[in-house]
Amino acid sequence: MKRMAVAAVAVLAGALATTVSPVAVAAPQPSADLLAAMQRDLGLDATQAAERLRQESAAAVLQRVAEGFAGESYGGAWFDASIGKLVVGVTDAAKTDRLRKLGAEPRTVAHKASDLDAAKAKLDASQAPAEVTGWYVDTKANAVTITVKRGQAQAAQALVEKAGSVAKVVETDEAPRLFKDTRGGDAYYINNAGRCSVGFAVAGGFVTAGHCGSPGDTVTGVDKTAMGEFEKSSFPGNDYAFVRTNSSWTSTPKVNHYGGADVIVSGNTESAVGASICRSGSTTGWHCGEVQAKSQTVNYQEGSVSGLTRTNVCAEPGDSGGSWVSGTQAQGVTSGGSGNCTSGGTTYYQPVNEILQTYGLTLTTG
């Protein structure tokens, strides 16, 4: 029975060598955009990019076969672009010839992939000091690599002891952080207290209502993490402001549709009186209506603001600063009004073009 099983594996390996080798796998049909991106970012020409995709497709198929064949001795696999093949690590050197016949490039390694995964799982259950920036199964190095800030290798000692002989410490200058989108209509918080809404993302930050904050006021984002601070603000007289965001936040042309796909702002062409218009805000979400008048002066209790646009769209506290769009064209940021979104009302917005011009800002468009 054992001889029959061995024979069956040999037959299977021979068959697989003809079906999953890089030469035998059909070339994928990459899009022009994908090829262009590979040429730009990997330094390839169109032919090289297409060939690499074919090789990677073959390697993806072969990886599963090779892992099954290697069994407990499997030490991980990776695609080596320099040879155009899948490299497979095994702890049992006797398996290398068969792997080569399958179309892989075998390497004898010290640690099984299962041991590396188990060591990483121990670290995942551990508390790490701030000097440690992360860890991962480093397949090519056949190790669990623990990354630490430059000059702080000693901080990883407890983790090294927990992971055991598979651990490897690498110092790095990288400081990982979250990447978050600045999106119109989302909430933000001023001095960890009041709440307003993002108007539109611009280069370096976003525009919003001036009555929401003064220069120097700190801002946290919709996720309550540090976002930036008010750099410029004008109220009363006008009602606009510019918040400069920190490096964790990326300006995007998105406006939150609250329940639908984000609106992608494509420009800032001003709409006419009578045109339809929609508003996004963090209290009441998405509401639409019509432009009723332009250049209105509104006498708020806190002071007069001129140059506002009047609409019959509803809004409520917390919507201030939020986005107004006509189609995909940016129109302005919410100032104030009367009524609410139960009974209806009148709401005014500060035209965005005045804000961009006054502060010399560039609207983020898609």
UniProtKB/TrEMBL annotation:
<keyword id="KW-0720">Serine protease</keyword>
<keyword id="KW-0732">Signal</keyword>
<dbReference type="InterPro" id="IPR001316">
    <property type="entry name" value="Pept_S1A_streptogrisin"/>
</dbReference>
<feature type="domain" description="Peptidase S1A alpha-lytic prodomain">
    <location>
        <begin position="113"/>
        <end position="165"/>
    </location>
</feature>
<keyword id="KW-0865">Zymogen</keyword>
<keyword id="KW-0645">Protease</keyword>
<dbReference type="InterPro" id="IPR009003">
    <property type="entry name" value="Peptidase_S1_PA"/>
</dbReference>
<protein>
    <submittedName>
        <fullName>S1 family peptidase</fullName>
    </submittedName>
</protein>
<keyword id="KW-1015">Disulfide bond</keyword>
<keyword id="KW-0378">Hydrolase</keyword>
<dbReference type="InterPro" id="IPR004236">
    <property type="entry name" value="Pept_S1_alpha_lytic"/>
</dbReference>
<dbReference type="Pfam" id="PF02983">
    <property type="entry name" value="Pro_Al_protease"/>
</dbReference>
<dbReference type="InterPro" id="IPR043504">
    <property type="entry name" value="Peptidase_S1_PA_chymotrypsin"/>
</dbReference>
<feature type="signal peptide">
    <location>
        <begin position="1"/>
        <end position="26"/>
    </location>
</feature>
<comment type="similarity">
    <text>Belongs to the peptidase S1 family.</text>
</comment>
<dbReference type="InterPro" id="IPR035070">
    <property type="entry name" value="Streptogrisin_prodomain"/>
</dbReference>
